[in-house]
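1st attempt posting a full record on here, be nice pls
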Amino acid sequence: MNNNLLRQLVLISKQTFKYFLLQLLVIQVVVAEPSSSQSMEDYQVTLNVSNQKLVEVLAALEKQTDFVFAYNQQVAKDKSRISISNTADLKTILQKLTEQVDFDFKRVNNNIYVTHINSRLKIDEVIEFEEDVISAQYDVQVSGKVTDENGEPLPGASVTVAGTTTGTVTDMDGNYTITV
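the predicted structure (as tokens):
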């Protein structure tokens, strides 16, 4: 009887181990995802174009890669002509394109966005200008005098703007001026 119990225990252990391995294999298959996030250096492209528009060049690159080029009407209407004869990785080809046109390329997932270099600079300049205007509009000087309950001036009292780290200290007569 003892021998029979031992055999059954070994049989159950073997089956449990087989089911464990099977579950492990199934989990690996379910969790594993195909890696589609190849970098632009992984794509070898051949580009032989002479005096062609940027849109035509981008269409040729789309055919050779898994990327989609996204651009606006400014890119579509661009009259620049491109001439490249090269076999290299996609990143190198795009760098060579930026030498011939005023556009830049930015990859996001499987899309490559084409942006005009000058428009990006203009946007940055406008943002800086707007920040200057906003800060100039809201600079307000507040002055006052800090006194105790008897009306005596309090020199060296701290005056702060609530919710900020902006502050000042009163002078010998209890006077302060702060810009908010």
